[in-house]
Amino acid sequence: METEREADLLEDEPPQENGVIQSTQGLYSSTSPPASDDEPFSTYFEEKVPIPEDVTQMFSFRKLWAFTGPGFLMSIAYLDPGNIESDLQSGAKAGFKLLWVLLGATIIGLLLQRLAARLGVVTGMHLAEVCNRQYPTVPRIILWLMVELAIIGSDMQEVIGCAIAFNLLSMGRIPLWGGVLITIIDTFVFLFLDKYGLRKLEAFFGLLITIMAVSFGYEYVMVRPDQGELLKGMFLPYCENCDSAQMEQAVGIVGAVIMPHNIYLHSALVKSRQIDRGNKKEVKEANKYYFIESTIALFISFLINVFVVAVFAEAFYDKTNIEVNAKCNASGSPHTDLFPLDNSTLQVDIFKGGVVLGCFFGPAALYIWAIGILAAGQSSTMTGTYSGQFVMEGFLNLRWSRFARVLLTRSIAIFPTLLVAIFQDVQHLTGMNDFLNVLQSMQLPFALIPILTFTSLTSIMDDFANGLVWKIGGGVVILVVCAINMYFVVVYVTSLNSVALYVLVALLCIAYLSFVCYLTWQCLIALGVSCLDVSCLGSRMRLTGHTDVYLLNDMDSNMMVER
């Protein structure tokens, strides 16, 4: 039956589009990518942005403008409230010393986003859809659950950021639970702005990024950090006299910057442009412009993060609680009780960060800070919802309405946050960020390993598969990033001081590491480690002669073609 279906697929006459014959051999044909008409249903808008034709130029600003949008939506994950909190804690704990870590993490993030964008451009499918077709049922479901956990954790951080911003802007008149409810409502409203056009929605996200740049840039100009120390901290990869707390903060920066759901998001966003995937020249051009756009977007996000680090490094590094208490008391702040009368080093979070800025630089600094946090939380909440839609659609092959998908993904993230906001105070709400950062750190392998696996397979990427340098470099980068984040998890767990929790974590770690090893094994096969191929797969692999065919055995039968 399979053979007959494959024969029927190969015998069908290829459709034509604008005079160009489009292949119907399916996504994983080694000869050509799928036609754009055959792309799966997507939640990311019905319209596609046309790309202007200009064959006379090597580089066209008109084309760059047409491709501009997905990279900036992706960059919002680098500016979410979790990142902002990591930035301000980095500045308050280590001064300018860890700016080079932020720079390195952003560059690594750019390289990983390049892989995600290339997968979406070349295949016409996003990462969740490819995982759905590549992995067997049980690993696929586990992978989906892990990615959903990462999205829920990120969503909760973003909702917390919005709730705190509303609380600060209203001088406490809007309670935290009220801020959570407002965030639910306005997220639904904003998510349907795409009905007015894709480019208008992308412009709205651009506006939110601009608000963040202006808000945190104002704080930067007002504080006037030492530019020499800033440049030294950014380009000198060394942390002088750093203790364990500062090293843990360095690890936290990497965990906050590189987020698993963002890989899935970016691979889907790039599908919003009209690209003839049967034309290798157009695919190559799209990859080039998307990489340029992503570089610009992440450079802007990096500058905004630097603004936040520099403000707290200059103004609050090595400050004690008693100093801040005295300053807040003198300024008439109602939040003086947040800072105990002792000589311990100041500990800040998003809420306290706004308070201390208000105490030292006046009420305007507090309100502008809150506006920046609100823009960060609102924009990342919206992109987080899109991530949830793409992941659910891709892994489960759902065909729900837009409203139903938004309602489900919002409810999963909002419900636990709302409970905490109702029954706990702001300290417990902001304290959740540490746990949520750990949760997302644990999910990183479930995005990084699949993206390296699939972009290394010639059966999927054809001529655009990773070369040897990218395979080795990507493998090393992913290994380092995952090791750093696992260290962060271990540090957090050991700080809990509970034997029962240690036992529970040990049991979970066995299952967790087993699944990571499974994904790594498949990735190594894709990277060309033939010894694993032969020893583990035996005669079946020797008969095929292709190390990547094993990963294709679980594709839908109507996608299979003879190579």
Any idea what the shape is?
globular
**Could you tell me the number of beta strands?**
2
Rounded mean pLDDT score: 80
What is the top-level CATH class of the domain at 61-440? Mainly Alpha
Strand order of the largest sheet: 1-2
Q: Give the topology string: H per helix, E per strand.
A: HEEHHHHHHHHHHHHHHHHHHHHHHH
CATH architecture of the domain at 61-440: Up-down Bundle
Quaternary arrangement of the chains shown?
single chain
- How would you sum up the major sheet? 2 strands, antiparallel
Distance between the termini: 18 Å
Corresponding CATH superfamily of the domain at 61-440: Amino acid/polyamine transporter I
CATH fold group of the domain at 61-440: Amino acid/polyamine transporter I
Beta-strand fraction estimate: under 5%
The helicity comes to over 70%
Structural class: mainly alpha
Helices, by number, come to: 24
Identify low-pLDDT runs: 1-43, 535-563
Region (Disordered): 1-42
Pfam families: Nramp
Main location: membrane
Membrane topology: Multi-pass membrane protein
